[in-house]
Amino acid sequence: MFHFKQGLGWKACYDDENNIYTAKTSWRGTFDLYEINAEIYHQLGEPDVNPDALIHSGRHLYHSEDSPIGPPTDMVVDENYAALCPWTNIQASGNVMSKEMTELAIDLLENEETRAHREKQRRSGKKKQE
Questions:
Q1: What is the pTM of this model?
Q2: pLDDT at res. 130
Q3: Which end of the chain is more exposed for a tag (fewer CB within 10 A), N or C?
Q4: Residue 128 pLDDT exceeds 70
Q5: DSSP per residue over 7-33, as a string?
Q6: Side-chain half-sphere CA neighbours of 90 within 13 A
Q7: Is the separation of the CB atoms in 45 and 7 below 8 Å?
């Protein structure tokens, strides 16, 4: 069963069957999906809490942007984003950033939690190949 919290430009979900917390933010052409933890989820909606900052401290899963300064672009940070967030309609432009560009963007722009998860995936992929 899904449990939700929602505010202006954000929505968070607790999936009690899979024991996972996820959230989306959207504002003026940008759309992001994150995996968050229970602590973040429970703080959302509290007075004097910046929900965007809390959500963006989680592990980034997906980003889509349709702005007037460039072509619409999607960045897939975690290939399992749709399975992790089945509760939301995913905004997609259809113009997916290459894996190489995504790796660069993660290294330069993402938070530590997102980079650490990506590195863990790389290491486990190398072990499987050996």
A1: 0.81
A2: 53
A3: C
A4: no
A5: ETTEEEEEETTTTEEEEEEEETTEEEE
A6: 19
A7: yes
Distance between CA atoms of 41 and 35, rounded to whole angstroms?
10
Query: Each residue of 8-34: b (16+ CB within 10 Å) or e?
Result: eebbbbbbeeeeebbbbbeeeeebbbb
> Is residue 61 within 8 Å of residue 72, measured between CB atoms?
no
Question: What is the tally of helices (H) and strands (E) in the chain?
Answer: 5, 6
**Ramachandran class of 90: left when φ > 0, alpha when ψ lies in -120 to 50, beta otherwise:** beta
What confidence tens digit (pLDDT) does each residue in 60-78 have? 999 998 878 888 999 999 9
pLDDT of residue 126: 60
Range ranked top by mean pLDDT from 27-41, 98-112, 116-130: 27-41
